[in-house]
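Troubleshooting: if your tokenizer reports a length mismatch, compare your output against this known-good record of 106 residues.
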Amino acid sequence: SVKHAVAHDLSIPLAKAAVNKAFESYCARFAEYKPTLRWVSDRKADAGFSVTGVSLKGGFEVTDSTIELELDVPFVLRIFKNQALSVIEKEVLLWVSKAKAGEITV
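Known-good structure output:
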């Protein structure tokens, strides 16, 4: 699996809200990948995508200082892993900055 962390200095509820907003934006832009997000605990969410009929599973974990993304990428899709992480990271960073600017409330 591939792991990546995005630093934040938000409260846990606000960091979770940023993840939700980032994922909503991702869903709107990439609906064809059938993205899903389900919070399984206070700080962890399972995520899923489908690319060319192949399912990708992963998730987010919100810590006090990071939003961690983990993605299990099948071998046949490894060439896309950096692209996928980059797109998701950009969305998370955008919404973390919006949360810091007061554009998200919980």
